[in-house]
User: Fold this.
Amino acid sequence: MADTLNLLTDIEGVAVGHATDLALGSGVTAIVFDEPAIASGSVLGGAPGGRDTALLDPSMTVQTVDAFVLSGGSAFGLDAAGGVQSGLREIGRGFQVGSVRVPIVPQAILMDLLNGGNKDWGLHSPYRDMGYEAFKAAAKGEFALGTIGAGTGASTATFKGGLGSASARTSTGHTIAALLAVNAMGSATVAEGPHFWSAPFEQAQEFGGLGLPARFTENHTALRMKGANLKATTIGVVVTNAVLTKAQAHRLSIMAHDGLARAVLPAHLPGDGDTIFAASTGARPLGDMAAFAELCHLATLVTARAVARGVYEAAALPVANAQPAWRDKFTSPAK
Assistant:
């Protein structure tokens, strides 16, 4: 993958945009498709928050989406999809209903209301405007990771969370990529040390190249959580250019959750809302079941890598008593 960006935008026809407010301690990320994309998703956390997620079930009528939205703000953040929807309507996008076009914009939110940012926004939350801002900022090519967009206010049990992405290519030439906002109740690192649970899947020192500890102790695998009464969540998308059915996209989202479970310990807790969307741009025919199995395998790997990159690239929020970032404590050969 040396000729790629190792980002979601390695998928042709996908643009990513962010709105970031460091004082608020929150943000929004919009994933916008050039053309409607076959899409599905799955929710395995115990405390999810989302908009238009039910239509992603393979049995539901609508097959495609125009965009996905990832946002902070907990339930307040659900306004962000309205802003992205406004931007899409402005350019004539959407599902045709009579003479009206309705942009299809599923969204997932994460809980970042207790991170020290200024949440005194008055009567209406800022998220609709931030959604529109993220849509207008959506672009192809390189984009920043870490404390940006939906990852702005994210945290984990051990270090500051953030936005991460990774991509891979199958042996048959199909591309798959993931984008995750890592706000897990559990930990992406082995205890409070520098090693990431995703280390076996790392490519080109993308999150430090430090590998795993030489041996594991009970302390390494002990339960670590942000707090029993806090709500968390890792939310994200996995996208491929392979032609998929809606049912296959659903399976891809489940395989991506396998990657989350390999990257965060523990994942899918009662206080997590872990939600992963999956989409196909349909640019390249897939072939046989073996080709799809390889795509599923790589969905697991790119998700695990994206989680680690989100934590590795994050910076602490500029607020009092902010959760330290991984880079506040460790350095790596990659830097």
About this structure: The chain has a mean pLDDT of 95. The radius of gyration is 18 Å.
